[in-house]
Design brief:
- The protein is of the alpha+beta class.
- The protein has one domain.
- The protein contains four helices and five strands, in the order αβαβαβαββ.
- It has a five-stranded antiparallel beta sheet with strand order 2-1-3-4-5, sandwiched between helices.
- The longest helix has 16 residues.
Length: 136
């Protein structure tokens, strides 16, 4: 079994699955809340704390994905600044790829989780350098 430690290992695990996988990406921007104190600002400037806002999302077939640099390049075309990308996988059934409607519903659920301040630990999270992040 391959341990998921980065984007490439995620793609490798996706290729090993019995059912076709559709990858779901939600790009987030971190910001300092309007209601913040000096301690919040110091924590935020050191890379901790703040609030997250979903600014764009997309679903991709595994065959469309190559490497993290390509994902970064494609995201720049959207001209949106982002700090973190959440990634989830949606498995097909009976060898069929998940539909666009299924992917859209799952993406909406991911965005709602972010908006509601829900648990993001069930998603793979990477920063712009491709480093794995953990939420606490």
């Amino acid at each position: 079994m391959i341990e998921i430690t980065d984007y490439q290992s995620l793609l490798a695990v996706g290729k090993l699955q019995d059912q076709p996988q559709r990858f779901l990406f939600v790009f987030l921007q971190a910001s300092l809340p309007n209601e913040h104190n000096d301690e919040d600002k110091v924590r935020f400037n050191s890379g901790l704390g703040g609030e997250l806002q979903a600014i764009m999302c997309v679903d991709k077939d595994l065959a469309e994905l190559t490497d993290f640099a390509s994902l970064i390049t494609e995201s720049k075309q959207m001209q949106q600044q982002w700090d973190i990308v959440l990634i989830a996988c949606l498995a097909g059934v009976n060898g069929k790829q998940p539909s666009s409607d299924q992917a859209e519903a799952s993406l909406k659920m991911m965005v709602q989780t972010v908006q509601n301040g829900g648990d993001l630990s069930k998603y793979l999270a990477l920063d712009k350098q491709g480093d794995l992040l953990q939420f606490s």
